[in-house]
Design a protein that fits this description.
This protein is of the alpha/beta class. It contains 4 helices and 4 strands; from the N terminus they run αβαβαβαβ. It has a 4-stranded mixed beta sheet with strand order 1-4-2-3, covered by helices on one side.
Length: 91
């Protein structure tokens, strides 16, 4: 239930694969309901792309999400497999 409350508070969601050009510029969006339905998927990776300042002051975080620097994609993109479903979110 807590996951659902956190998800409702999200402002933007992006569902991408690392292979997409422009780091998700053209990535399809998914709803919180769609994300909630796939949360238990073993191939799902949730990345929090908020700035460190915004992330630190927020009380809304998805359990299991990994915070990454959205301005330094090259430093973390190689850590994820091409067949993983990756959701980037900011709140």
């Amino acid at each position: 239930m807590m996951r659902w409350k956190v998800l409702l508070g999200l402002v933007c969601l992006f569902f991408i694969t690392i292979a997409m050009p422009a780091y998700g510029k053209d990535a399809p969006r998914i709803s919180t309901k769609q994300l909630n339905a796939i949360l238990d998927s073993p191939s799902l990776v949730i990345l929090d792309v908020r700035t460190e300042k915004d992330w630190n002051k927020s009380d809304r975080k998805i359990v299991g999400a990994v915070r990454v620097d959205p301005m330094d994609v090259d430093s973390w993109a190689k850590d994820y497999a091409m067949d993983e479903k990756i959701v980037l979110y900011c709140a």
